[in-house]
Amino acid sequence: MSGTVAGRLAELGLTLPDVVPPLAAYQPAVRSGPYVYTSGQLPMVKGELAATGKVGAEVSPERAKELAAICALNALAAVRSVAGDLDRIARVVKVTGFVASAPDFTGQPAVVNGASELLGNVLGDKGVHARSAVGVTVLPLDAPVEVEIQVELTD
Fold first, then answer.
1. 63-85 pLDDT tens trace
2. How far apart are CA 51 and CA 59, in angstroms?
3. pLDDT for the residue numbered 2
4. Could you give phi then psi for residue 40, rounded to 5 degrees?
5. Residue 34: how many CB atoms within 10 A of its CB?
6. 25 vs 147: CA distance, rounded Å
7. Looking at residue 110, what is its pLDDT?
8. Which of 84, 118, 136, 153 counts the most CB atoms within 10 A of its CB?
9. Which of 57, 142, 145 is nearest to 95 (CA)?
10. pLDDT at residue 1 above 70?
C-alpha cells in the first residue's frame, strides 16, 4: 500500500473528483475542531447523477453498492476541500448511508458496504468506522443512495 492517500487512490485506479457543488443552502463539508463532517454526497460523476431510482426496483443492489463507493469518493473530495490534504485523516469516525429502497428491499447494509469498502481500501486501518445504513422512501434528485462521513484530522 502506498504511503499517501493520493498514491493509494492512484494504485486503485481512482481519481478524486472535484467537490460536488451544493444543491441547496449548505456546505459540502465543515470543520469543527479536529473533525470534518460532510454533507450527504450523491453518486455524482462529472456533474451528473450516475443513476436514479429505488434499490430493489430500478437499481440492482450490486449497482447501488458501486454508487455508494462513488458517494464515498465524493465525500473524500469534500473532506479535502476543508482539510487541504487527505493524509491529515487520523481516522474515519462514522459513515451514514441512506438507501432509497423499494418497499420490500432490506439489503441496505450490503449497499452501504460499497462506501465502507472504498474507505477501507483507500485509507487502510484509518478507514475503519462506525456506521448506519438506513432505508428511505426517496432521496434528492431520485438518487438511489447518499453517503455522509465524519473524519478526525491529525494536527
1. 999 999 999 999 999 999 999 99
2. 8
3. 63
4. -60, 130
5. 12
6. 18
7. 98
8. 118
9. 145
10. no
- Which residue, chain included where needed, has cell 447501488? 64
Residues 6+ apart with CB under 8 A from 66: 114
Residue pair 106/55 in contact by the 8 Å Cβ criterion: no
User: Cell for 74?
Assistant: 465524493
For residues 68 and 115, is the Cβ–Cβ distance under 8 A?
yes
Rounded to a whole number of angstroms, the distance between the first and last alpha carbons of the chain is 23
Q: Which residues pair with 45 in a beta bridge?
A: 48
- The span from the CA of 48 to the CA of 67, in Å, is 12
The average pLDDT across 48-55 equals 98
pLDDT at 136: 98
Residue 53 dihedral angles phi and psi, to the nearest 5° = 115, 180
